[in-house]
Amino acid sequence: MIDNERYIRQILLPEIGIEGQEKISTAKVLVVGAGGLGCPAMQYLASSGVGTIGIVDFDKVSASNLHRQILYSIDDIGVPKVDVAKRQLERINPNCIIKKYDVMLSTENAKTIINDYDIIIDATDMISSRYLINDTCLEMQKPFVYGAVYKYQGQVSVFNLNNGPTYRCLFPNPPISKIKDCNESGILPVLPGIIGLMQATETIKIITGLGNPLSGTVGLFDIKTMQWEHIKLSRKQTI
Fold it and tell me: Which 3 state secondary structure label does DSSP give 139?
């Protein structure tokens, strides 16, 4: 039974309605990474009424997380992120089923974990995990919503949707040299917030059929200029 009063503001949208809300309430979304991208994405997925949200993260909350990972507080330092995230999301919406995986996604567990979900959100900051998510989703025919941030810029796209482009169409192979993450290069806290919200938006669009998901398009956002640039991307037949 859908809580019409809780979701009335989105049910009123003619493109959503009761039917769209029912799709949201039965959707299963896996978020890989409960950090700067994952926190805002999960909050809005829960508040929107996504039926099942899975969280994959093996890290514990640290003081340096708090300026951008907005699910956590100073009292959570040292506690596994999945434990805190599950508790907080259940407080936001007790109707959501929250499943936690206190592990690093690996070649040994990726298929088992991903198999239970309709859409995968890549909220990681590890390049190797991103390729693993892409390749597993491609093999299992599941879409994944990509997000990445670096200093003042962010990227968003949707891969593996309806035989659309994959992450390897954008970056065929991992870089030879190590790419610095925000722990080394720094980040403004609002940037992963914006990109994480866009990932949640793309996820809801896929679930409900609303508008045009960013499949075949990579959105590039510059927080200094507040401008978006969109790059077209086609499926490479060699993938």
Answer: helix
Cβ atoms < 10 Å from Cβ of 188: 16
pTM surpassing 0.85?
yes
Please answer whether residues 28 and 117 qualify as being in contact, where contact means their C-beta atoms are separated by less than 8 angstroms.
Answer: yes
Domain with residue 89: its CATH number is 3.40.50.720
Match 């991208």 to its residue by tokens.
Answer: 37
Domains of the chain: total: 1
CB half-sphere exposure, 82, CA atoms < 13 A: 18
Residue 44 has pLDDT above 70, yes or no: yes
Does residue 238 belong to any structural domain of this protein?
no
Domain range for 172 is 4-232
C-alpha torsion 53→173→176→102, nearest 10: 20
Residues 73, 76: Cα–Cα separation, whole Å: 5
DSSP-derived 3-state class of residue 7: helix
DSSP 124: -
Task: Provide the 3-class DSSP secondary structure of residue 222.
Answer: strand
95-137 per-position pLDDT tens digit = 999 999 999 999 999 999 999 999 999 999 889 999 999 999 9
Is 177 within a domain?
yes
Residue 58 maps to a domain: yes
